[in-house]
Structure prediction request, 129 residues.
Amino acid sequence: MPKSLPTQKDIKELTDFIPLLYDENITLYTTNPEGDIFGGGYYSYHPSVNEFFKLASKPCWADYQYVDNYSEGMIKPSKIEEASLDEIKTILTWCVRVERFNEGHWIAVIEDKVIKRILDRLLSINKDK
Prediction:
């Protein structure tokens, strides 16, 4: 599959979510104790969360080898802030995909500011273009 890079428009699409994902007045998720491992649905996400991760799932952001390329070290302090666009794609793919196997991962990466650091780095990359 050919490697596509995100455009400035793709970057802006994601960075526009900073005020939505980090607004203390917005409840980003609720939990449903009726949800279970078979039916899922324990986490119910705010539409902004769902839309952000839908956009972050676009092919231009996908690293189809993210399992091989990703390492925990990529999200350690100062690593995201120095990451290349390809490294950002790997980290972002990890952020998107792990939710499938670990419900609640999206909220964890938002609350742990991994997404904020990615978006800040994308702002910096976009400014340099």
Q: What stands out?
A: The longest strand covers residues 29-31. Residues 114-128 form the longest helix (15 residues). The mean pLDDT is 91.
